[in-house]
Amino acid sequence: MSLTHLPRAAAAATAVAALLALATGCSGAAAPAAAKDPAPAAAPVSLPAPRSAPAPAAVLTPAPAAGEVRTGQGPFTDRVKLTDTHLTAAPSVTGHIAISSDVSDTLALEITAAYYDAQGHLLGTGTFHYEEEGEEGHAGQPHTGPRATGDGIDFTVPADHLTGTPTAAVLSIPVLVNE
User: In this predicted model, what pLDDT tens digit does every residue of 117-130 receive, in sequence order?
Assistant: First the structure.
């Protein structure tokens, strides 16, 4: 090949290479080895955090009556019936809860109580947990906690780390799992 034909041959080779690259890129054929390396991983998709029970109100308005036990609105309020609720001197809230939406067994239940003074200021909270454990509890130990019956569950929500003497409470039900 003479030197006069070199620019023409180089131009033709470049055109053929460009045409092959374009055809390969559009045809879905395998990418060159350098392009096969995985791209940096995209950030993982984040899901919204599970919803938790709202924090109790810092102040009740109107202020509660002495000994009053209110039931706060929540996702399960319409599915249960709370009866015989009392604020005790312990302090704790006692009562009875029955599931009114169906007749299936209660597998898990959580009742929280927010304790308030006579002016309606939050003093602290407490929690009652129920889990159906069958005949035996954890590690082969007998289940000694409350048991659900066809008529419901008796509960006691003890106060935890109060900053004063409560005169009222508000119950909420953040967890209710039926069979």
Answer: 999 999 999 999 99
Short-list 144, 74, 139, CA closest to 111: 74
Q: DSSP letters of 116-133?
A: E-TT-BEEEEEEEEEE--
Give pTM, 2 decimals. 0.64
Q: pLDDT of 21-53, one tens digit each?
A: 545 555 445 555 555 555 555 555 555 545 566
Distance CA 63, CA 86 (A): 17
- 127 DSSP β-pair partners: 112
Cα 103 to chain centroid distance, Å, stands at 25
> Which residue type is seen at 62?
P
Task: Identify the bridge partners of residue 86 per DSSP, sorted by sequence position.
Answer: 94
